[in-house]
Amino acid sequence: MSDKNNQNTSSPKIKPAQGPGHGMPLGRPAEKAKDFKGTTKRLIKYIGQYGLQMLVVIVVAIIVTLLAVIAPNYSRYIINDLQEMIMGTLTNDEGVARITSYLYIIIGLYVLNFIMSLIMHLIGNKVSIYIGRKMRNDLRDKLEKLPIKYFDSKQTGNVLSVFSNDVDVVTNSIQQSLINIISSFFSIVGILVMMFIISWRLTIIALLILPLFIFSTSTIAKKSQSKFIRQQKQLGNLNGNIEEVFSANKIVKLFGKEEESFNEFQKINVGLTTDMRDAQFLSGLIRPIMEFISNIGYVAVVIVGGILAGATNPLKIGDITIFIMYQKNFVNPILNIANVINQLQSTIAGAERIFEVLDEAEENQEFTTLTVDQDHFKGHVEFKNIDFSYTEEQELIKGLNLEVLPGKQIAIVGPTGAGKTTLVNLLMRFYEVNKGDIYIDGIKSTDYPRPILRKQFGMVLQDTWLFSGTIKENIAYGKPDATDQEIIEACKQAHVHHYIETLPKGYDTFLKEDADNISKGQKQLLTIARAILFDPNILILDEATSSVDTRTESYIQNAMSFMMEGKTSFVIAHRLSTIKKANLILVMNHGSIVEQGNHKELLAKNGVYAELYNSQFLNQQI
If I label 511, which of 41, 113, 340, 557 is the partner at 20 to 30 A Cα–Cα? Predict the structure, then answer.
């Protein structure tokens, strides 16, 4: 196995929608889905198994909203009764009794509101957590079924972003956006009903300012959107500049480019500051404008309310007071819905990326029931008339024929892109051939179930892979039932036992992520020990010594020589000095074998191999 460099391409996490003035400016551009409608339907269907719980959340959210809307109306009754008591139209005893009953009702409504809110959030949290768990499980299961070509064509950071950011965005939004939009919708309906109950005249006046709200906020949102887009672009430039400077810090210092580098950073930083200032200023205008328009509405309501207070059927103080409170609360739900819709764009875009992974083509299903005894495998490999290409436009291997006898060491050399690693990928069925057949001990490789086939191979790659765990666990990765003595013996054969013994905890030493607490050479020796313990029938060694010092290279060469003894081995190498003893050397170029033979035979031909070898030898002499 090999590690790929993680690409930090994860998208920023989306916060829950909030009302203006509470942390999220209206008009911030949301990432848009390619198929909003189709993905929304699929997401609803995906979470269908939690339909009952979601229905409970919806019903409870409606109840909570209606309770919150109804409760202030009883405050209106209290204020009106107090007014009547002061004016003498209501006796103190009767007034106190009515006010007391209203207080009990208000307290009861708010207690019930609290209980229902608690139930709503508990169920909502539980459902969103379970949906997130299901998504991650489905994605993880999918990754196991995807072919190697998927991972070769995708950046690691993008795949990780789907697991983390996209799943979090979708699951959080399922709960928060759903509750927000339901609460806001029923708040609007409930508040309008209560306003009409109090005074239909005042309600019409209050609604007259609604077009002003919509026009002003939508106008500012359009203008600020372009500013936010520029801000995000400048932020990406800034992050790229910082990453570049940090990763190439030695080069910058070597050429004395510190001041020039800082000036470039400062230029980007100033541009980002300008765009942020403009974007925040525009989005920050929304709240003051809302309040200004609201204040105009309040004034109009108060004036008309005062006139109506002296009319034939006068409004009371409580009516006007609570009406103004309803009017004040009427706008926020509308803007909350706008924010939720904005956020849902990003949510559906995240869901779309999740479904894209789940929809990826899996490895071809196998229908073979072939069972083979382990003793059957000897390591006889044949390539017959193999054609292969990664893309239809560019052919890589054409008409390849090769026979490798059991126990022989085959070295594969050639320039980058010649098809060396491709040959190994085809052998292990990481990729399927376009034409021809590969035989392992007389049986087509496609007739073997993949797990049985791949169990015959051991790999030692240039990019060592060790997981976070003890040295013992890493070495026994391919043979978890190995005894301590077997592990120790494998490490002795790999010339790494003595080093392990010098560590404070020996074989129980815990390796950090990427095993960066030990040297690269020691990591390579540990992977060799792992391969020795696994004891495969066919070995694949891909540039195993290309990035270590000479002394460590000799240890690795000795360990590999022991490991390859009596086994069919495929060695991909750039250092031709390491493959002199190979039984057969294949020189590949453009997917074809252009020369083959042992070291002496190829040098005598004075062809491509001799040219490669002599150029390396001359470089070493220089």
Answer: 557
Q: Which two tokens stand for residue 199?
A: 């005074």
The tokens of 618 are what?
A: 């001359």
Say if residues 77 and 105 touch (Cβ distance below 8 Å): no
Q: Residue 596: beta bridge partners?
A: 586
CA distances from 506 to 472, 499, 511, 559 (A): 9, 9, 11, 20
**Spatial strand order in the sheet of 592-597:** 457-461, 538-542, 568-572, 409-413, 584-589, 592-597
Element (H, E) at 587: strand 584-589
Calculate the CA dihedral of residues 140, 141, 143, 144 and round it to 10 degrees.
130
Q: Does domain 459-535 have CATH number 3.40.50.300?
A: yes
Q: Tens digit of pLDDT for each residue in 36-75?
A: 888 888 888 888 888 888 888 889 989 999 999 999 999 9
What is the 8-class DSSP label of residue 24? Answer: -
Q: What is the pTM of this model?
A: 0.68
Structure confidence by residue, pLDDT tens digits, 382-439: 989 888 887 777 777 888 888 888 888 888 888 776 677 788 888 888 888 889 999 9
What are the structural domain ranges in the chain?
44-190+315-363, 459-535
> Sign (positive/negative) of CA torsion 242, 246, 248, 252?
positive
414: tokens are: 């050639």
**Residue 420 is which amino acid?**
K
Instruction: Dig out the tokens for 337 from the structure.
Output: 């819905």
Q: Is 393 within 8 Å of 205 (Cβ atoms)?
A: no
Domain 44-190+315-363 has CATH 3.40.1010.20: no
Taking the chain, what is the end-to-end CA distance rounded to the nearest angstrom? 36
| Torsion angles phi and psi, residue 64, rounded to 5 | -60, -45
Structure tokens at 189: 């309906």
Closest CA to 419 of 452, 444, 440, 390: 390
